[in-house]
Amino acid sequence: MPTPEKLNLPVKVTYIFTHPIRWVPFELVAKYIDKSKFAIDYVILNESDPMIACLQELHIPYIVTSYSDYSNTPEMVKFLYDHLLKNQTDVVHTHWFAGSLAGIQAAYYAKVPVRIFTREHPSIKYYSRHAASKHRLIWECATNVIGVTHKSKEGMIEDGIPEHKITLIPTGFDVSEYENVETSRIEQLRAKYLGNHQSPVIGVAARYVRWKGVEYVIEAFKKVLDIHPNALLVLAGTGIDRTNLEEKIRKARKEDIVAPQYDDILSISEKLSQLPQQSYIEIPFEADLFALFKLFTVFVHAPTDSIQETFGQVYVDAMLSRVPSVITLAGSAADHAVHRENAWVVDYKNSDQIAEGILALLSDTHLREKIIHNAFVCAQQYDIKNHIQRLEQFYISELQKRRE
Predict the structure, then answer these.
(1) Could you read off the pLDDT of 170-181 as tens digits, one per residue?
(2) In terms of domains, do 299 and 390 share one?
(3) Phi and psi dihedrals of 234, rounded to 5?
(4) What is the pLDDT of residues 274-296, one digit of tens each?
C-alpha cells in the first residue's frame, strides 16, 4: 500500500455534511484521525448542527453556512467551490444527501483529486425523497463511494454505481466508552427511569417509525408478561414528546402537512395501550446510551425487512454493552449475526419468534452468557481504531493513485 511519505504532508481533508442530531461516529473520526498526517477542516451546512460543539472542543477548523433549500444548490456549490480552492483540499469526504449533493459537485468543479461520499441510505428504489437524477449526479461526480455494510453496497450496485468505485468501511465505535461506564452513571439512570424495578428489563432503542418493527416487539412483550408478569419494557430513543401530541397531529392534518410518521406513532400507541401501564416506559431521548444499555437484561431490535438500517448502530451498541440481543437481520447484523451464537435471530414481522427469543435468553443462563461473550468478541471488528486505520489508508492510497 502507498505510504504517506510519498505525498506532501499533511494531506488536506475537508468534510462536508450536516445532521440534525448528534452522530458520534463523525465525532470519533474528528477526534482520532492522525493530525500529523491529515490536516482536516469541516464545512457544516446547518447553523444548529450538534457537530459544531465537538469541533470547538477539539479546536478543529470549521465554517458554518445554511443550506435548507435545494433550490439554492448552485449558490451552495459556488460557496463550497471557493472554499475548496482556497484551502487547496486534497480529499473531500461528504455525508448525507445535502452534503453530498452540493459538496461532491463543488469538489468536482474545483478538481479536488479524491472526492468521496459515504452513503447511509438503502437503494434509491426504496429511498424516494430525492429524484434519482440527483443521486446519479453525486456518484458521477465522485471518485469513490464508501458503504458501511454489505447491504448498503448491494443497494449501490443495484442503483448502478460502478462496483470499482465502492469501498466497504464499517462504522467505528469507541470500545473503551462501553467498557468504562461508571457505576454512578448507571445508577443515576436506574433511579431516573426504573425506580426500584428489579425484574427483567427488555430494552428497545428505536424511533416510532413502522419499519423499525416496534409494534412486533410490543406484541411479543405481551407474551413475555405471561411468564414474567413484572417484566419492564423500556422504549428508548422514540423521539416522541407526548405533550399535546394528539393536538399536534390534528393541527398537522388540518394544515395538510405531510407527516406519515404520525400514523406510525398512533399505531404504536394503540399497541402500547394494550399493555398494563406500569409495564413499560418511553424515553424520547437519552444522551448517555452507554449507561442506558447497562440497564437492559435483553435488547430487541426488529426491523421489518433487510433493506433498512444500512447505517444502523444499535446492534453493535448492544454487543459492546454485553447485552444479549433478539434481532432481525438488517444493516450490520446481516454481516455478523449468527443465530444462538452471538444473537437470537428471528424472522421479520414475527412477534412469536421475538417472544421465544426473549424467554430463551431470560431462562437459559448458559446460552445468555455464551451469546454475550461471542457478541462482544465479534464487535471488536468495529473498534474505531480499525475504522480510522482503514480510512487513513484509503485516503492515502486513493490520493496516491491520482498523483502518480
Answers:
(1) 999 999 999 999
(2) no
(3) -105, 115
(4) 999 999 999 998 989 999 999 99
Same domain, 161 and 188: no
Among 19, 53, 27, which residue's Cα sits nearest to residue 177?
27
Helix (H, G, I), strand (E, B) or coil at 397: helix
The helix or strand, by DSSP H or E, that contains position 52, with its residue range, turns out to be helix 51-58
For the chain, the domain total comes to 2
The residues, ordered by sequence, that sit 6+ positions from 295 with a Cβ below 8 Å of its Cβ are 186, 189, 190, 193, 194, 201, 203, 234
User: CB-based burial of residue 65 (10 Å sphere; 0-12 exposed, 13-18 middle, 19+ buried)?
Assistant: middle
Q: What is the mean pLDDT of residues 182-194?
A: 97
Q: C-alpha 50: how far from its chain's center?
A: 15
Q: How far is CA 38 from the centre of its chain?
A: 25
Distance of CA 329 to the CA centre of its chain: 15
- Bridge partners of 233, per DSSP, are 202, 280
Distances (CA, A) of 141 to 9, 95, 102, 362, 397: 26, 15, 11, 51, 19
Both 146 and 193 in one domain: the answer is no
Do 126 and 184 belong to one domain? Answer: no
Residues 167 and 184 both lie in one domain: no
pLDDT above 70 covers what percent of the chain? Answer: 94
DSSP per-residue letters across 232-244: EEEEE------TT
> How far lies 228's CA from each of 95, 198, 201, in Å?
44, 12, 10
How far apart, in whole angstroms, are the C-alpha atoms of residue 322 and residue 179?
9
d(CA 166, CA 383): 21
End-to-end CA distance of the chain: 14
Asked if residue 76 lies in contact with residue 45, where contact means CB atoms within 8 angstroms, the answer is yes
CATH number at residue 344: 3.40.50.2000
What is the C-alpha to C-alpha distance for residues 377 and 373, in angstroms, rounded to an integer?
6
* 255 or 270: which leads in pLDDT: 270
Domain that holds residue 250: 175-381
| CA distances in angstroms from 204 to 78, 174, 281, listed in the order given | 44, 21, 11
For residue 288, give the 3-state DSSP assignment.
coil
* Whether residue 133 is found in the same domain as residue 152: yes
Residue 279 and residue 299 share a domain: yes
Give yes or no: residues 222 and 305 share one domain: yes
